[in-house]
Specification:
Order of helices and strands: HEHEHEHEHEHEHEH
Number of strands: 7
Radius of gyration: 17 Å
Shape: elongated
Distance between the termini: 51 Å
Structural class: alpha/beta
Length: 206
Amino acid sequence: EGGIAIAEALKVTSTIKSINVGRNELGPEGNKAIIDMLKINETITSINLMRNELGTDGGIAVAEALEINKTIKDINLVHNHLNSAGCIAIAEALKVNETVTAIYMCGNTPGSEGATAIAEALKTTKMIEDITLESNALDSTAGVAIAEALKFNQSITNISLGFNKLGPEGGKAVADMLKVNTTITSIRLDQNWIGLEAGKAVAEAL
């Protein structure tokens, strides 16, 4: 009920620009009400939904909202049980959204399909400047896909890929990307087991 009440209030407010409802156990109905509110609200630019167990349905609902919303610039979806279906939906939304500049998706489980979808979105987006994908169990295939996408992206300045499983192949792909990408100013690769050779390649690319 709390989430629903907050959502109803935010449908009519014209002053609130940032809201943090993270870690609130809003439940499926509360989560949906907050997310659906974003289809109507025209003032909120930043929303934190971290650790609210959005799951697949919540991820799809976020995607639908981002396809409509014209004001959100910053969205936090950290640790929300977003699986491949949820991440694919969000990735598709990012292809058409023209306002989001920062999205935080740490601690989810996109899988290979979800990671590939995110990579495809990064190829075309001209808005996102900051994306965090830490602790998403991204493997070398995902690392290669994301690195290839970043060869084309010209908006991202900060990307966090820490605490994944990119391995030597993913590390080498990142190194190759850094040789041609001219916009990234900050990249996090810690705890990815990229190994000595890939580490050297990254260092040489900087």
